[in-house]
Amino acid sequence: MYIKQPQFRGIIQSIVFVKPKKPNSGNRRCVLIKKTIKAKCKEQTVFKLVSVRGNNNTNISIYNSALFEYKVYADIPGVKFRLKNTCPMINSRSKYGCKNIYNLYQKRYHVCSCMSCLPYLVPRDQLMNKVME
């Protein structure tokens, strides 16, 4: 399966256990995915085995959409991809790029749990001036 993408999305069809090659032992958990490739004139549906990292990945369920990336494992025959994210639709910020907006909001505005303060969002420096007076 030739894909010109660093990551691609597919649908999980089933969860299988694969035996590794000879010196290694223990079954490796893999998933069978369905990927539809759209060419110029036709669509091609391909089924591939994908490795799952870690032992306790509980977000895996059948017919979920998931994100995969190319990674060849030497001890698992026929597995050339690994599971990257089981929820690719979640809008998450980059670890390194932008700062958390909620934390900036908390620093700038007085945020408390009481309902009386919610309509009056005042910048923190103005709030401190009112407290000092």
From TrEMBL:
Alphabetized UniProt keyword annotations:
Ribonucleoprotein, Ribosomal protein
Q: Which residues form the signal peptide?
A: none
Which top-level group of life is the source organism from?
A: Eukaryota
Asked if the record carries the keyword Ribosomal protein, the reply is yes
Under the heading InterPro entries, the entry gives: NA-bd_OB-fold, Ribosomal_uS12, Ribosomal_uS12_bac
Please tell me whether the keyword Ribonucleoprotein is annotated for this protein: yes
Give GO terms: molecular function aspect only.
structural constituent of ribosome
The record's GO CC annotations read: small ribosomal subunit
A Pfam family matched in the record: Ribosom_S12_S23
According to its UniProt entry, one GO biological process term is: translation
The family note in this entry says: Belongs to the universal ribosomal protein uS12 family.
Q: What is this protein called?
A: Uncharacterized protein
